């Protein structure tokens, strides 16, 4: 029998597939539970944007037709929103699709990508799948005053060499929730060689309320090597539809669009995204729920005497100072799905998505119970 692993393209045998949060249905099937809550995938606990969901439903009768491959209307809306031209936008089946397009366009054997330890798990996957090398920078130390486990931009800059084509930066970062200020990120972009592509992954930007938090879009005119990615999966509540986008200089958009799969964004996804963009009320409610939930979870961790990483996202990562995989399992048995982050080199932490107030309460109660000696 042929050993197909001898035939794969460079990098494929080194891949470890992305591990998603456990689906509610799967847990309930396995353990015969009901009433399970999932706070594991940074999904919006308020559901989808109502305007978005309605718009997707409204086009269902037409799904015998291919979607608009150019995404004309969504791009036009996004361009107006961000003060860009449509040629400066590329749409993806989620923003991870856009990140993959960058990797497939610029990475290859003999080249490398630089990113931080504890950053988003798709960066090594796309880099390795493209046959390129991962250069992983040390993060800020665990006892750092403002950004424990956060991106250390100086350490990242030091890893950039002549073969570096891409630098990935998540702001805020997942799974740490840490974030970089305007000043620090701008200084990094200014120092970096202009032939290195910077992917600034802003999946959680709409949740952030900090004054010193940057909007990467403002830098696009100055840095033609910058691509900013955003998604409808998080605050807009459309993760199940798969739609996101990238913003960059027109020449960069032109290049990465060459590897885009045709019709990569489905018709319901396009329609929902267009409508959700206008759903100001839903965004406001989502942000309020998140601010309150972060405070609720932080207070709960303090009561339990647990350290957590201060987060600007819609999730928070807590240090259990013991094998978090075991606690995760026990929480599953109690019908609460959170996210173990051992695959991010954080075997004693758990990441919990901010839920509705009652979900946060239940999570804290179950956590307290399973931690009890
Ligand atoms: C969730 C997430 C994304 C995007 O996911 P998509 O659903 O593919 O848009 C990108 N980056 C980070 C850091 C994320 O956490």
Describe the fold and architecture.
The protein is an alpha/beta fold and 373 residues long. It has helices spanning 24-31, 50-59, 72-82, 95-106, 122-129, 153-159, 182-191, 250-257, 267-277, 280-303, 324-333, 357-371, and strands spanning 37-38, 89-92, 112-116, 133-137, 164-170, 197-201, 226-231, 244-248, 307-309, 315-319, 336-337, 339-341, 346-353. The protein has two domains: 8-38 and 280-371, Aspartate Aminotransferase, domain 1; 50-276, Aspartate Aminotransferase, domain 2 (3-Layer(aba) Sandwich), CATH 3.40.640. The model has no long low-confidence stretch (mean pLDDT 97). Helix 2 runs antiparallel to helix 9 and helix 4 runs parallel beside helix 5. The protein is globular and about 60 Å long. 36% of the residues lie in helices and 16% in strands. It has a seven-stranded mixed sheet with strand order 2-8-7-6-5-3-4, sandwiched between helices. The protein has a four-stranded antiparallel sheet with strand order 9-10-13-12, with helices on one face. Strands 1-11 form a two-stranded parallel sheet. The protein starts with 23 loop residues before the first helix and ends with a helix.
Shape: globular
Low-confidence stretches: none
* Name given to the CATH homologous superfamily of the largest domain: Type I PLP-dependent aspartate aminotransferase-like (Major domain)
| Helix/strand structural class | alpha/beta
Modified residues (N6-(pyridoxal phosphate)lysine): 234
Subunit structure: Homodimer.
Pathway: Amino-acid biosynthesis; L-histidine biosynthesis; L-histidine from 5-phospho-alpha-D-ribose 1-diphosphate: step 7/9
GO biological process, one term: L-histidine biosynthetic process
